[in-house]
Design brief:
The protein is mainly beta. It is built from one helix and eleven strands, in the order αβββββββββββ. It has an eight-stranded antiparallel β-barrel with strand order 1-2-3-4-5-8-9-10. The longest helix has 22 residues.
Amino acid sequence: MKKTLLIIMALAGLFLSASEAEAKGRFSITPRVGFNLSNIGGEGSLDVYSTRLGFTGGVDAEFQAIPMLGVSLGVAYSAQGCNTNEMWNYRSWTKNINWHIESHQLHYLKAPLMLNFHVGKGVTLKTGAEVGYLLSARDCGTKYGYYGIVESGTIIVGPVNEYPNTYYPDGDKAPEPSPDGLYGEIVEYRNKEHKDAKDTYHRFYCAIPVGLSYEYKQFMVDARYHFGLVKIVRHSPDNIMDNRCFSITLGYRFNL
């Protein structure tokens, strides 16, 4: 056993000595910008969810101890989520509102830790792990309908869920909002909405990124798929939706 360990240590020493002459412990910084193609999937997701285009950008710092292997740590902003065509109808005694949601927008700050396998001239295979924090989340779309108004001109705001919300899937249209059942002066309502939905989602983000990059004259094109590891919706044990994201970035390597 001791002889085997000595042989392994000797071979490792020879390998590192030979590699050091070529790599000399290269350290580099790579700023990068690009775009995400993201969606929300898993049990609980809706058929109307579709791919959303979002911005991503950040910087990676890599230490390459030997020619074929490097370790990098980075920080990145990532706009994810999905587009959708959801139609919800909210009814109470004093309002009739349709809520047409067009996108769920999730904004993360991530920290990827990657192993970089330099397998050929300019070609690198990458895998690792990344954690992140949800900076903000919004549901964006259009709300339209009617409110009832008393003689004083004050809007009557009744319980939002006095009647259960009704969801109309893709292909079906919610009924046109009607003032039937409302009283007093009736006012029509239509407005673009950006609803804060941060409390709906988990703050913590975790994924396994796997990717490939190509470098030419210090310019680097990087493609990664991010396998989400944690569910994204809070307070719903039966809902196990997760993030699904593919990113492409262009960076420039500064050797230090």
